[in-house]
Amino acid sequence: MRLKIAFVASDVPSAQTARAALVGRFGQVPEDEADVIVALGGDGFMLHTMHRTQNLDTPVYGMNRGTVGFLMNEYSESDLPERLAAAEEEVINPLSMRAEASDGTIHTALAINEVSLLRAGPQAAKLRITINGRLRLQELVCDGALVATPAGSTAYNYSAHGPILPIGSDVLAITAVAAFRPRRWRGALVPKSATVRFDVMEPDKRPVMADADSRWIESVLWVEIRSETSIAHRILFDPGHGLEERLLREQFT
């Protein structure tokens, strides 16, 4: 039986051209009627597509029309049905972020890669870290800190010298960005079930912003982060090129 495919593309010309060619060749159905959604673009567009379609129990298969393409497969038109039929599925849970801004408003957001806190002024941030209601670090002086999922551990987390986490591991990474005090603190691994809370100390003098997959909240007072196991993102990869293989390969290059 022929797969029903919904093709979506980023705004870049190469992605739009690819979408037109693929729709002309394989047809197009609405996303809520599709067996699979094919996303054409880069990692940013892939994340956007996964967030936007999270209420659909439909796997997403990305083809790279961007730059890095860590979450994407190589682009090819001719053998797409065969690749989709043979694709391997990875299931990942996003992070849930809850934060209070300085005006008293409460914000919520989901992040597939990471939730990060970054200083928003000239002075370093001062953060207090609590895990499951228990104080773990009284004061972290830094440019920022983040909590990363295994899927996001090779993104901003890795650039900040955080660990790469195997896909399927039941841990999250807490990583400091340019830590000043404690100077040698290199972060921590916590259970996937943990609730991580950052409290911003001296928020007027040292403002901090929070980000969940490019959803920004300015001047936060505190941020709570946990794994949202009620949401499961289904991602398809060509055999032998799934996230587990990519994570391993990233560590030996």
UniProtKB/TrEMBL annotation:
Its main location: cytoplasm. Transmembrane segments: none annotated. It is found in: Cytoplasm. The keyword Kinase applies. It catalyses: NAD(+) + ATP = ADP + NADP(+) + H(+). It comes from the Bacteria. GO terms for molecular function: ATP binding; metal ion binding; NAD binding; NAD+ kinase activity. This is NAD kinase. It comes from Roseovarius azorensis. The lineage of its organism: Bacteria, Pseudomonadati, Pseudomonadota, Alphaproteobacteria, Rhodobacterales.
